[in-house]
Amino acid sequence: MVNNLLTSTRLRLKKELNLVTLIAVMIGLNIGGALFMLTAIAAGLTGPSLFIAQIISAVPILLAIIPYLVFTSSVPTTCANYQYAKLSSPAFAVAGWWGLFVAIPIGALPLFAIATAKLLAVVLPGLPIAGTAIAVLTIFFVINLFGLKATSYVQFGTVILLILAILAFIIPGLPAINAANLTPMFPGGAMGLVASAALLFTLLAGGLFGMEMGDEVKNAKTTIPRALIISLIIVAVLYILVNIVAVGVINWKALAEGGTLGTAAEAFLSGPMLSFFIVGGGILASITTINLTLTAAGRYAMASAEDRFLPRFFSHVNRRFGTPHWGLTLPYVMALITLIVNPPLETLAAMLNFGLLFMITLVLISASRLSKTHPHILANSRFNFSPRTIAITSIAAAVINVIFMGILAIAIPVAFFIFAGACCFGIAFYFVRKKETNMVPSFLLFDNEGKTGVVDNLSEPE
Question: Which domains does the chain have, with CATH numbers?
Answer without folding.
Answer: 2-439 (1.20.1740.10)
